[in-house]
Amino acid sequence: xxxxxxxxxxxxxxxxxxxxxxxxxxxxxxxxxxxxxxxxxxxxxxxxxxxxxxxxxxxxxxxxxxxxxxx
Length: 71
Known about the structure:
- The structure is a single chain.
- This protein is of the alpha+beta class.
- The chain has 1 helix and 3 strands.
- It has a 3-stranded mixed sheet with strand order 1-3-2.
- The model has no long low-confidence stretch (mean pLDDT 89).
- The two termini are 20 Å apart.
- The protein has a domain at 6-52.
- Keywords: Ribonucleoprotein, Ribosomal protein.
């Protein structure tokens, strides 16, 4: 997505570590959102937030979907 600053949401972190260190999930459906960095001392203008999409049980036939933000 053309940024170097990637942030992981707490929900995604919990989903990864839910079963412990020995058996992490093989696949997770992830939503990536590119946001504007409003910090004064920020080096990058944009950053990416990675969050988990709940409720996906079957990964067969899934396609990438581009969703426009409603701000």
